[in-house]
Amino acid sequence: MLATNRLRRLLAVLFAFALLAGACSGGDSSDSSETGTSDTAETDSDDSSEADDAPTEGADTSADGSDAVTAEDETVEVIEGGTIRIGLQTEAGSLNPTNTGLNRGPIMLATAVFDTLVVVDKDGQWHNNLSESWTPNDDFSSWDVTMREGIVFSDGATMDAAAVVKTIEAFLADPLTSLVFKPAFSPETPVELVDDMTFRLNASGPNAALPYYFAEQLGMIGSPAWLDARDENPELDQMPIGAGPYMIAERVQDQKTVLERNPNYWGEPGNLDTIEFYPISQDSTRTDQFLAGDLEIIHGTDAESILRLREEGDITRIEDNSGEEFMLLMNAQVPPFDDIRVREAATAAFPKAQYADFIDEGTALEADSLFSVDTPWNVPAIQQVDDQPELAGPLVASYCADVPDQCTDGKVNIEYQHDGPSLALDRIATLVGDAYSEFFNIEVQVIPNDQHINEVIFGQYQMATWRYHGFSDPDVDTAFFTCSTIGALSINWSRNCNEERDALIAQQRATEDFDERYAIWTQIQENLRDSFQYITVSHTNWMVSSSTSVGGVCDATAPDGAELPCQTRGVIWLPQLFLTN
Amino acid sequence: MKFIATRIVQMVLVVLAVTLLAFGAMNFLGDPLFNILGPIANEDAGPEFAEVRAEARAEYHLDDPFIVRYGRWLGDMATGDFGRSFKNQTQVSTEISNRLPITLILMVYAQVLSVLISIPWALWTASRAYRLPDKVSTVVSFGMLGVPVFALVVLLFWLGAVRWEIFPTRYDDETIGARLYSMFLPALSLAIPLIATYQRLLRTDLISTLQEDFIAVARAKGLPQWRILFRHALRPSLFSMLTVFGIQTGALIGGSLVVESYFGIPGIGAAVIEAIIRDDFPVVLAVVVIITVIFVVVNFIVDLLYSFLDPRVRLDG
Amino acid sequence: MALLEVNELAVTFNTPKGPVYAVSDVSFAVDKGQALGIVGESGSGKSVTVKSLMGLLPRTAKIDGSAQYEDVDVFNMSKDRRKHFYGVDIAMVFQNPMTSLNPVKRIGEQLMEGMRFHRGLSRDAAKSRAIELLDLVRIPDPTKRLSQYPHELSGGMRQRVVIAMALANDPALLIADEPTTALDVTVQRDILDLLDSLRRELDMALILITHDLGVVRDRTDSIAVMYGGRVMETATTEEVFADTEHPYTQALQRAIPDMSMPRGTRLDPIPGSPPDLAITPVSCPFAPRCTFATDECRTSIPPLSAVPGSETHRYACFHPQGLVAAASTVGGEA
Amino acid sequence: MANAQTTSPLLDEAPAPNPPSIAKQLGLGFWLSVGFLLTIVFLAVFAPILPLEDPNKVAVGSKLEGPRAGLWFGADSTGRDVFSLTIWGARISLLVGFLAILIGFLVGGTLGILSGYFRGWFDKIVSFAFVTLLSFPALILAILITTLLGRTVFWISFSLGILAIAPVGRLARAQTLVFAERDFVTAARILGAKDSRIIVKELLPNVVIPMSALALLGMGIAIVAEGTLAFLGISVNGGLSWGKQILEAGSSVRNLQDGPHAALFPIGVVFLTVLCLNYAGDRIREVFDAKELAL
Fold first, then answer.
1. pLDDT tens digit sequence for D160-218
2. B216 in contact with C at a CB cutoff of 8 Å?
3. Considering only Cβ atoms within 10 Å of each terminal Cβ, which end of chain D, N or C, has fewer?
4. pLDDT value, residue A390
5. 2.40.50.100, 1.10.3720.10, 3.40.50.2300, 2.40.50.1020: which CATH number matches B93-309?
């Protein structure tokens, strides 16, 4: 029985993980390839803002970036209570953050159910949320976290340090979900209890950015009783219990999840009585339902919906280009991409202009690095050398001269894979195949999503489409390109190890100072570009659209009053939402 | 009674054979362990997953002989336990019971549409056999048979939802009316080949029925044409149509995969496609078994209906 | 005043291979309550004749001539009149009771629908009328029959049902098209007698079509003999048997089955086969099979001539046998 | 109609003039269909050497550009030449259709003839196998096999071929049953011919003609099935195919609004191809059925 449960739990993890990675690869109908904006990216907080600053672009002339905010302040009547319906791009196999990689859809739901230890404000600065204070030691290698008094889970249990430690341990014990976060913690005792309300986090080295890890899924704290119960009954993964402003009232997977206000909430209670979530993976359907008035809020990334919604007058739109990149992975451990010349040639031959024309159609920003202009980490001078096929010729010729058995007719033989069936990915493959045909004998493989992920994780691929999550602080991202995460099973998907880069990563962790970190991150970005780790294609544009009957989208604040972003990669805050006329 | 007994035995044998084939294909052609565990089924995943692999083999009895596993699976299924989905650990039976009604509605909808359209059409053409409207109808119905469902869905969607904007572009199950309205194009896509098939068969049978003496008798009774067609000629002419009604159910199931996937209708057709793409065995197997059972049972009912249509047919004959 | 009077009826089928002259120049009349026998081999046009009257011919048939039923021009009826004409004024009994009942409908339903349609009877009224009718045609246990299917009845029973159906709306004229041909010999007589007595009971006119001259002998008032789509001889029944003029009628007389003959004996009295109606008629249709035929018979069509001294007896032959015999007798005496 | 018995025996006795040649009996429609099919086959086979745009070349036209001279069917959503795509799509669709029917005929035809000839327990088993195959939801079986074995032309043809086995086998068996009773087979048997000789020399030629009609109809079905698999996204990996082309062009409201031609042209070609196969098959069946009756 125990074995069964453990296995079931593990299965849940795996498949949830597969889903997460699936989104990474842009595999399903709501895939990244069609996402992103380019020209709407200008924003008031452009130069100074943090990752999550989200400009709004009202369609009608009166509504501009500050539309939602002004509306609530002056002219809009706030209705107490009520219900809104939100259409999500993805559904989760499990809503248990300790065993599942949660996608952007489910994470919106989970955030409302759990709350996180810290939250990140408009400028990218973290603030205490469930936690009371964070005290690092001298070199930031160890942090003492004190919890806020008086927080209870929705099942009535008190949230103390022990409860938090239990969740974090459960999370880090999960072999797959923890992959991204684990490298930041000490392998021996990542977390230990100090007293009733305080616990200590031990990092793998000095890490001033450690609190940011707890603005993500890792910071979602579940009720200990629930965590125990779900070990016996995996179906409880669908009915999580946390200390957030809302709790799950009803859930039919793949159809509907209803949240209702948590009466025991420690902070200011939510305005709305209930919030209904509908997972609608078909982008056009979700958009249709929203425009037909069947949903009050939707989020999405596909070009067609974005173009349609931009034409609509009576809605409020918020676009966010700050995170998630669509990219091509090149496996640096197997021929031919083990040779930097081939990686460089593939990058140079990449048809980015055609991609912009035919795929994004002006809905997303083309990417030169992992950081869009909407993030503070963007370095305008860093440009990826792509769309210059003339550079590819000599590189391929020189490689084929050295390694003739990887070439046929003077072209490098490569395998390009994406998961499918996916029309958008097919179209991308068409573009890439055509552009590469001069230098590569490209064989396109469309394989099922889980197999695609499997092959990428185990390095059994040459070139693959992928979607890369940006986190609220780039340090969380480093797991994707540090040497330490390369193994049989590797989340450094490209398996591209560079010790100089690892040294830089360690260096930026040692300081809290933004300017210092920015300088180091400039070097890291140059390093990534020059080692041809990825071909970055575009920055996903997450668009959140809400009907005019919904107010307060941009009004969320941290407990200390700091303004929170309107949306972060498609996720909005829920407790401050209200209905209006 | 003997006839019914023989047919039931035959049905059971067919279902057993189909399940054996499906289960066998899944187990011999695919890799069950990979389908269960995904990435970590791979030996390369490292020693930390070895224990999990062993557990999975034990949990799913992968080391048992095939026939033992098959028997176990069949036994579970007989009790309504279709296992849990690999995707999200929910009971497959729950998913099926959520989705099956939608598919059944779609299929019944399509059949009702085809019968409602094909019968009057066939009556109309048969009563004007070999004259111009009949000849035109023959060409039209032959053409309707030539359009594959996957082309039909696009064509009808383009005409009905995009160009003329008469029908919604999405499935809507808010109310029964909205559901039927939004299911019209999907059902019509399934119905068009059926309409043509039924019309052709029924027309041929009607033409020969209309030459029967009892039709002349009905005419001599002074009954009006419509009454003769509907009340006298129709029922004895339904045999061929009924025979293919059963066979067409199979085509309808195939078509529902296309239609549900294209129109985004959350039925079992869409479910099985999703499950196949995900290698979600328990769902695929469950759907295959259910669909087969439906198919076999429909054909059985068709046989029973013969005796209703023609009292001369004796079930035990 | 005749109930039905047919004048110079001609039916031509247009086929891809050219016109077929199925019926030509056919005239006869039936009086109220009287019985007419139309006698001829298969292919003689007798069935086509009555089908034209019943409106049962396909569209490819071209009908000329006239048929007057009381004040109704049968071939040019108004729609309203037509709606309640067949099955009410004229009804018909078909040859084969095995095929003339709808196999998938209960007897009761088939009996009742005519009266319900034409007379608007309620279900109950129609039901009691149906029982009455079954009783009338001497079917035992009529109530039970109503819920039976045709295949549960014997051939004779079925023909009685067919007759009952025809009688449903008290027709003034009943046409019976070889009503016993398909039946077992033992029940043929019962059915014929039934028709005869019904006619008298209900004071109804009857056209009885048969290939067997013997059948009409005691059951009709007058007879028309047809061959090759034409009337060969027409007269009162008495006259036909007393003074046969046409060689064909004579041949038919010789073919009347003798009750003393063993059952199943096939009567094939007339050598040769019926004429090809696809050929434009230029001769006496019977000429190829007629032992008396002369060149005259092969080059021109004999007109219908009256037997001297009779208003009812007419024949179409250049060699009327009765008159010739009479003449030879007279001549012999002279 | 009701008087048919009165007139038709007379009409049928007219001796038929010289029966028209088979080619004439098949009719103009048949030859038009065959002409269209041959044109498609020709274009498909010689696509690589015909002066066609490379079907994989993007940006030949602008996005969803309408038909114009030189771009007869317009461009698709990545600017590819729809005409060229349609011709190249025919290659896989027709190849799979042909291979599937070949497999179905080799396996189903053999089993059907043998079971019809030898009868007995072998016949019972084979007949039950046919019933089982027919009870299997066909498309799902094809999808299962394709997913499990791989999305190559061979395996897709194989899985569709399996579907063809039962219907082909049943017809072959029925035909064999008919002919096995005929005198010429009995005669051969009495003369001591070996079973194998009787089957190949006496039965096969007689069974083949009605089967050729089924082959054409079956190819139509196989082409539709392949298109369906492609439409569901599970046909030949990375290959061009009608089903995929129609899906690509037809699965987005916006694409259908802006450029329905990208979907409508391949739909038209699929429609005509299936129609022609059906029609030609039907004609062959009618003409040879009639001949069969006359024998």
1. 998 889 888 988 888 888 887 777 777 887 877 788 888 887 788 878 777 888 888 88
2. yes
3. C
4. 94
5. 1.10.3720.10
* Domain that residue C138 falls in: 2-258+266-333
Neighbours of chain A (3+ CB pairs under 8 A): B, D
Q: Can you tell me the ipTM of this complex?
A: 0.78
Q: Is B47 left (phi over 0), alpha (psi -120 to 50) or beta?
A: alpha
Q: How many domains does chain C have?
A: 1
Token output for B294: 């439906």
pLDDT number for residue B300: 83
Domains, chain D, in order of start with CATH, read: 26-293 (1.10.3720.10)
Cβ-in-10-Å burial (0-12, 13-18, 19+) of A29 comes to buried
Question: How many Cβ pairs within 8 Å bridge chains A and D?
Answer: 57
Q: Is the pLDDT of residue A17 over 70?
A: no
Q: Among A363, A298, A423, which residue's Cα sits nearest to residue A26? A: A423
Amino acid (one-letter) located at A532: F
pLDDT at D9 over 70: no
Transcribe D75-124 into DSSP letters: B-TTS-BHHHHHHHHHHHHHHHHHHHHHHHIIIIIHHHHHHHHH-HHHHH
* Cβ proximity of B107 and B249 under 8 Å: yes
Q: How far, CA to CA in Å, does A450 sit from each of A307, A488, A492?
A: 31, 17, 18
* C and D interact (at least 3 Cβ pairs within 8 A): yes
Crossing angle of helices C46-54 and B213-220, rounded to 10°: 50
User: Is the distance from CB of A410 to CB of A382 less than 8 angstroms?
Assistant: no
CATH code (residue C300): 3.40.50.300
Check residue C321 and give its pLDDT: 80
Q: Note whether C103 contacts B236, CB cutoff 8 Å.
A: yes
Task: For residues A541 and A274, give the distance between their C-alpha atoms in angstroms, rounded to a whole number.
Answer: 28
Beta bridge partners of C177: C209
**Among B155, C91, C233, which residue's Cα sits nearest to residue D250?**
B155
> Mean pLDDT for chain A?
85
Cα gap C60→C330, rounded to integer Å:
51
Task: Provide the H-helix boundaries in C2-45.
Answer: none
Contact check, Cβ <8 Å, B55/A8: no
Is any Cβ of chain D less than 8 angstroms from the Cβ of B273?
A: yes
CA angle D27, D266, D86 (to 5 degrees): 100
For residue D152, how many other CB atoms are within 10 A of its CB? 14
User: Where does residue A293 rank: exposed (0-12), middle (13-18), buried (19+ CB within 10 A)?
Assistant: exposed
Domain ranges, ordered by start, for chain B: 2-86, 93-309
- Measured between CA atoms, the residue of chain A closest to residue D231 is A421
Question: pLDDT class for A43, splitting at 50, 70, 90?
Answer: very low
B220/C54 touch (CB, cutoff 8 Å), yes or no: yes
- Looking at the complex, report in whole angstroms how far the Cα of residue B200 sits from the nearest Cα belonging to chain C: 22
Of all residues in chain A, the percent with pLDDT exceeding 90 is: 62
Is residue A486 within 8 Å of residue A559, measured between CB atoms? no
**Cα–Cα distance list, A321 to A36, A167, A280, A402 (Å):** 6, 31, 22, 41
When comparing pLDDT for D188 and A504, which is higher?
A504
Provide the 3-class DSSP secondary structure of residue A142. strand
Contact A171, A178 (CB under 8 A): yes
Peptide bond into C140 cis (omega under 30): no
Residues of B in contact with A279 (CB under 8 A): none
pLDDT one-digit tens code per residue, C195-243: 999 999 999 999 999 988 888 888 899 999 998 888 999 999 988 888 8
Spell out the SS3 assignment of B129-179. Answer: CCCHHHHHHHHHHHHHHHCCHHHHHHHHHHHHHHHCCCCCCCCCCCCHHHH
Q: Give D-chain residues touching C278 at CB under 8 angstroms.
A: 10-11
